[in-house]
């Protein structure tokens, strides 16, 4: 139990050091590091004869190498090409690149599947389709296949920013109030206006334009 707890805490520490990207967004070097760390970490938990240092030292070494690689790819172009490679343009200006599909080892059926998952039903509507370094497909539709924006329609709309959760399950998020540039007096005024207390609220959100949304507890 002690060995498992130590490895668990160390894994959290090492993964946080390598970054917060999800598995689907990991670069090749990050994915390799994740696999190696998980394999090394499991050995001393299952085998009591293996010293903890046999796992701790390699894990810290791998994390150090990952940090060095991450720093190198941001500073040196050759390191970026070596460790990350280049994005592959599968569709360029509406034309499918057969050679690029072969390099990516992707069939036309797989390409069509990826396009459908991006909300595109036909290749004719695609201007660019780019296979990124993390394995995801970026799809840029043609202008005539894109939904019109407010600017295209000549409509002036105000920016609402993002929605912030101020109260969740009766608990006030003080950091959220700071992020909004508001204080407790502002929140108390809103609650008083709706004849509520914080403990009566399940969700209270506010955007950057002070639009309030409240869900009461049942």
Structural class: alpha+beta
* Number of separate structural domains: 3
Count up the helices.
8
What is the strand arrangement across the widest sheet? 2-1-3-4
Radius of gyration: 25 Å
Percentage of β-strand residues: 15-25%
The tally of strands reads: 8
Distance between the termini: 41 Å
Residue ranges: pLDDT <50 for 5 or more in a row?
A: none
Sheet with most strands: 4 strands, antiparallel
Mean pLDDT reading = 82
Task: Please bin the fraction of helical residues.
Answer: 40-55%
Shape: flat
Compressed to H and E, one letter per element, the order equals HHHHEEHHEEEEHHEE
Question: Could you walk me through the main structural features you see in this protein, from its secondary elements to its overall organization?
Answer:
By secondary structure, the chain is of the alpha+beta class. It has three domains: 2-82, no CATH class; 88-145, CRO Repressor, CATH 3.30.240; 164-216, CRO Repressor (2-Layer Sandwich). Helix content is 45%, strand content 17%. The chain is built from eight helices and eight strands. The strands form two sheets. Strands 2-1-3-4 form a four-stranded antiparallel sheet. It has a four-stranded antiparallel sheet with strand order 6-5-7-8. α1 (2-18) runs antiparallel to α2, α2 runs antiparallel to α3 (53-75) and α3 crosses α4 (77-83). The longest helix has 23 residues, at 53-75. The relative contact order is 0.08. The model has no long low-confidence stretch (mean pLDDT 82).
